[in-house]
Amino acid sequence: MAALKPEPTKSELTNPSRRSFVRKSLLTTFSTILGADIVYASFMPKGYIPVALSLQSNPMDGKNPEMIIRNEKPWNLEARPHLLDDAITPAKNMFIRNNGLIPENIDVDTWTLKISGESVVQEKTFTLAELKKNFKAYTYQLVLECGGNGRAGFYPPASGNQWEEGAVACAEWTGVRLKDVLNAVGIKLDAVYIGYYGADKHLNGKADEVVISRGAPISKAMQDETLLAWALNGEDIPLAHGYPLRLVAGGWPASVSGKWVHTIVVRNKVHDGAKMMGDSYRVPKNPVAPGTKVPDEDMKIIESMPVKSLITFPKSGAMFEKSRKLGVRGKAWAGELEVSAMEVSVDFGATWVQCQLKKPKNRLAWQEWNVELSFPEEGYYEIWAKATDSKGNSQPMVIPGWNPKGYLNNSCHRIGVKVK
Ligand SMILES: Nc1nc2c(c(=O)[nH]1)N[C@H]1C(S)=C(S)[C@@H](COP(=O)(O)O)O[C@H]1N2
Ligand SMILES: [Mo]
User: What are φ and ψ of residue 184, in 5° steps?
Assistant: First the structure.
């Protein structure tokens, strides 16, 4: 697209018949790309590029129109809870979180992944074809949740995307194990951390400024489920989600799962890339009063995400008849742990009803739950959902510990329904 240069050449300017020929063929090109004729083309100024062709790729393409746009530059979208009702989240309903600009003109045939850093024996580069040929592929359902999901609930407000409930998804990812690749390259005994570098561009336009470069301890990198993935739900990863190659580390803040990844570094210290320091994806080691300025040494990196759940049916605001039992269902997940119990309450938490809870498809996948509810009389009710993990931690009913950037709000999801 960027290659389209409609400015007339010197010979075109001095030769009108050549000029109108160029203009006509250019219009045909435009129409082909747009998939439609430009109706008022004769009024279009010379050298003009139609807006639809000059915009950066629009991540809303192929997305469910019900997705909520939180920001357009960079693109950030979240799902409404009822869009997360499928066992495996379809790409069209997956939230998008970008810190910079989505890379364009990706050539999958020349894409490479470099493994480097002070703790590799010798750095090595793989083409995508080599990754696919040399290593065994695995498929896992993995929960990716933005560390800031639920940020909108904190007071005083934290800056950043005001995510409500929907910056989470559980899709099926296919790729090779990062550990197989690291073992093939050879890593030194002093390796403690890995970090990723992706191809996205900084919003400030500086070509060499890194947008985000996060990572995880070697122990997380070496888990079976930590993938270098090229497919999402059996198809190429959509561009906005990291095409053609993505690091996927389920159960941790999704910021660890680097999109458009071209380099993995193996470090002999905690990775110090962009957004690893300061308040980014870090929380106070000990609880602090809301609004406190927390010194750097009192902050820690977020690792496993906390236990959480969503009601994906019915939608908040649903209305139904009293005679009918209401089937309520949703999803629950617990970072590195499994969810061991799921309960709902219709009386503001006074009493709780046990739900049926399925096992996860694999480690780090979310779990489906459901329950049938009946209501004693007409009126307004709230349904609150509460998950408990295998270590006995439950979701709080109120907003949990305040932190400067508004991470880790895993308070109970609540919806309102009317019975008539
Ligand atoms: N290269 C790159 N990787 C990235 C990001 C980014 O801005 N650039 N954002 C991270 C954050 S903060 C989140 S929450 C997830 C979002 O993944 P998604 O857009 O596929 O849902 O990608 C992570 N990986
Ligand atoms: Mo995120």
Answer: -70, -35
34 three-class SS: helix
In a domain, 198, yes or no: yes
- Nearest Cα residue to 194 out of 207, 183, 205, 208: 183
What pLDDT sits at residue 78? Answer: 96
Regarding the beta carbon of 95 and ligand 1, being less than 6 Å apart is answered: yes
Q: How far is CA 299 from CA 90, 213, 267, 294, 295, in A?
A: 36, 19, 21, 7, 7
Residue nearest to atom 24 of ligand 1 (CA): 258
Please tell me the total count of domains within the chain. Answer: 2
Amino acid at 44: M
- Residues 213, 101 within the same domain: yes
**End-to-end alpha carbon distance in the chain:** 56
Q: By residue range, what is the domain housing residue 124?
A: 75-79+85-276
Task: Tell how far the Cα of 311 is from the centroid of ligand 1, in angstroms.
Answer: 24
> Is residue 239 lining ligand 1, measured as CB closer than 6 Å?
no
Residues linked to residue 139 through DSSP beta bridges, in sequence order = 174
- Looking at the structure, do residues 106 and 178 belong to the same domain, yes or no? yes
What is this structure's pTM? Answer: 0.88
DSSP annotation of 280 reads T
pLDDT computed for residue 12 by the predictor? 47
Write down the residue that tokens 């439950």 correspond to.
394
Cα 326 to middle of ligand 1, angstroms: 37
Q: Is 146 in the pocket of ligand 1 (CB under 6 A)?
A: yes
Q: Which residues in the chain come in under a pLDDT of 50?
A: 1-6, 8, 12-13, 16
Instruction: Establish if 130 belongs to a structural domain.
Output: yes
Based on the fold, state whether residues 235 and 183 are members of the same structural domain.
yes
Q: What is the position in ligand 1's atom list of the atom closest to the CA of 94? A: 21
The protein residue whose alpha carbon is closest to atom 10 in ligand 1 is: 255
Token code pair at residue 161: 């995307």
CATH number of the domain that residue 355 is part of: 2.60.40.650
CA distance 396 to 342: 13
What is the helix, strand, coil percentage profile of the chain, to 5? 15, 30, 50
Neighbours of ion ligand 2 (CB under 5 A): 97, 146, 255
